[in-house]
Each structure stands twice: as structure tokens, then as C-alpha cells.
Write a structure and sequence with these properties.
The protein is an alpha/beta fold and 311 residues long. The protein has a single domain, classed as Rossmann fold (3-Layer(aba) Sandwich), CATH 3.40.50.10680. 39% of the residues lie in helices and 20% in strands. It has twelve helices and 14 strands. Strands 5-2-1-9-10-13-14 form a seven-stranded parallel beta sheet, with helices on both faces. It is globular, with a radius of gyration of 18 Å. Bound molecules: guanosine-5'-diphosphate. Guanosine-5'-diphosphate binds next to α1 and α2.
Length: 311
């Protein structure tokens, strides 16, 4: 019996941690967005996989919201001092992961196999998969033209106005086979769309051929958790992007974006009046995950909503 969770970085990882703690060992499969992946300083960087991996392993940096705890910055400081590029910060511990991932990818290993091995070494019980082993790269059309995702997200701090998003490589990418197998498996008990940014974390996954159809055909209920609470994102550009793309930045707006894809929708008590007319079955809950107990409680809410919705 598997629960499949689709996740971006921070918001998704929080719920994934909750799910991993309330589900029996081995029942969670986390599928991560790789549209944020990029090559930088000669290294292959997979930010969402790493955030999920570090969070599940208990080694994530709680202050920064990305990277690793107990981090040191000798590499970055030295790089800056000799005139290198420092806009994308890489801590020393984190750097080791990128160096090793890059070495293995260049040696022909798949991102799936590398991720599985890193997770095993970090003693993570859940399975963590990239959405695909083929490269997909999110691009953003802004006032200043098309730019790469990390250029928009990190270097320009999400300041440019977003008009359009594109997922380069998605149309020819092959969805990760174990992900697709889990969607076809009659024993899968729920698919959870984590409270991640719909446009840059979830839609790259949905853009891979076959994923939307497999979700529609899946015998398990598909339940999304709102990344918007009280009309605002907890972190990141979700609400700003929605407004720029012509949508109402609200929990209802996110539900309508997922529309026919979802059977259930979990949103905050604060957004009760935003979800009238949403066709999915709505469950109201406390969705702010400040503590570990909050993450577990929300995971239980999602799993119990799934139980009620078994197709
Ligand atoms: P990123 O790839 O690091 O940007 O991470 P995600 O796409 O997974 O997460 C960003 C989204 O997570 C934002 O829209 C946040 O509002 C949402 N988020 C972060 N923390 C929480 C939380 O505690 N509860 C809920 N419901 N959403 C959250």
C-alpha cells in the first residue's frame, strides 16, 4: 500500500516529512520536481530533491529553509574572494552532494539511482524519486524576456513580473517508471499533491507525457493541499505569481488550477469562504506546519480525507 506524494521543495518537504512519520515504513513514495535543476559551477544541482532528502533525513537547515544544518561556508567565501560567482549559495556540506551527484551522472548513473543511494546513506525510509531521469528545465517569461528558472528565483529574487512558464524538455521526457507504476498499482491508496507552488513545482511534473492521464486513471484518490493560507504564501512567489498570471491568489484559485485532476482538497480554516464552488471534496484543517506535530497532524488529515474518497 503506497501513498504517492508530488512535491517541490520547502512546502512539499514539510508534508512529506509528516507523511513519512505517520505512515508505516516503506509506504511513502515522494516524487520530486526537477524543473528547478540546473548546472552551475560545473555541478548538477537538484534543489527540490535535496530539500526533500535533507528534510526527511533531519539534516535540513531550519534557519535558511534550504541547504543543510550545521553548514560552513569556506568554499563560498573563498570563491567570492577570488572573483567567482556567489549568487547561488552552496554550503560546504551541501557542495559534497552536488560534486558526488555530478560525478555519478557523468559516469552514466541515473538521477533516480543516485537519489536512491543518497537516501539510503542518509537512512531515509521513504522512497524519493525524480519526476524523470531526463532533464527538464523550467524557464520563465518575464518583462525582460525568457530567463532560466534559477536566474529568476535566486539571482533576481522572484522580482521580475512573470507572464508565462515553459518546461523545456518535458514533452520528450519519460516519467520515472516507478512513479508511473505506482499510479497504475491498484494497491496505491492515495496521491497527495503537496502544498507546493503549483506553477513551478507541481506543473512541471504534470507536464511530462502520461502523468495527467495516469492521475486521471489512478484508482486512488488524488488530494491536493493548499500552499496558500489566508490569501498568502508562507514563503516564495506562489501568490505573487498567481496575481501576475491573472488568477486570484487564493486557496480557491489553486483548487481551480488543479480542477478536474483532484478528488479532494485540503485547505486552511482561514480560507473557508474561498472554496465555495470548488468541485473537489474540501476538507478544512490547520495547514500551517510550524512544528513537527503540525506536519504529522496535517498528514493524518490528508490520509483520512483520502480514506473517505477511495474511488
Ligand atoms: P520551493 O520549491 O522551495 O519553492 O517549495 P514548494 O513549491 O514545495 O513550496 C512553496 C510553497 O509552500 C509556498 O507556496 C508556500 O506557501 C508553501 N508552504 C510553505 N510552508 C507551508 C506550510 O506550512 N503550510 C502550507 N499549507 N503551505 C506551506
Amino acid at each position: 500500500m503506497t501513498v504517492v506524494a508530488l512535491s517541490g521543495g520547502v512546502g512539499g518537504a514539510k508534508l512529506a516529512l509528516g507523511l513519512s512519520r505517520v505512515l508505516p515504513e516503506g509506504e511513502l513514495l515522494v516524487v520530486c520536481n526537477t524543473g528547478d535543476d540546473f548546472e552551475h559551477l560545473g555541478l548538477c544541482i537538484s534543489p527540490d530533491i535535496d530539500t526533500v532528502m535533507y528534510t526527511l533525513a533531519g539534516v535540513a537547515n531550519p534557519e535558511l529553509g534550504w541547504g543543510r544544518a550545521d553548514e560552513t561556508w569556506s568554499f563560498m567565501e573563498t570563491l567570492g574572494a577570488i572573483g567567482g560567482e556567489t549568487w547561488f549559495r552552496l554550503g560546504d556540506r551541501d557542495l559534497a552532494v552536488h560534486v558526488e551527484r555530478t560525478r555519478r551522472l557523468r559516469g552514466g548513473m541515473t538521477l533516480s539511482a543516485i537519489t536512491a543511494d543518497l537516501c539510503a546513506r542518509l537512512s531515509i525510509a521513504a522512497r524519493v524519486l525524480p519526476m524523470s531521469d531526463d532533464p527538464v528545465r523550467t524557464r520563465v517569461r518575464t518583462d525582460q524576456g525568457w530567463i532560466d528558472f534559477q536566474e529568476y528565483f535566486v539571482r533576481r529574487r522572484c522580482e521580475p513580473v512573470v507572464h508565462e512558464l515553459a518546461f523545456h524538455g518535458a514533452s520528450t521526457a519519460r516519467a520515472q517508471p516507478d512513479f508511473m507504476a505506482a499510479l497504475r498499482d491498484p494497491d496505491t491508496k492515495a496521491v497527495v499533491i503537496c502544498p507546493s507552488n503549483p506553477f513551478i513545482s507541481i506543473e512541471p511534473i504534470l507536464a511530462i507525457p502520461g502523468v495527467r492521464t495516469a492521475l486521471a486513471d489512478c484508482s486512488a484518490p488524488v488530494i491536493a493541499v493548499s500552499p496558500i493560507i489566508g490569501g498568502r504564501a508562507i514563503k516564495g512567489p506562489t501568490a505573487k505569481m498567481m496575481a501576475e498570471l491573472g488568477m486570484t491568489p487564493s486557496a480557491g484559485g489553486v483548487a481551480r488550477r488543479y480542477d478536474a485532476l483532484i478528488d479532494g482538497y485540503v485547505c486552511d480554516f482561514a480560507d473557508m469562504d474561498q472554496v465555495a464552488g470548488v468541485s473537489a471534496k474540501v476538507t478544512l484543517a490547520q495547514t500551517l506546519m510550524s512544528t513537527l506535530a503540525d506536519r504529522e497532524a496535517l498528514a493524518r488529515v490528508v490520509l483520512s480525507a483520502a480514506r473517505m474518497l477511495r474511488r
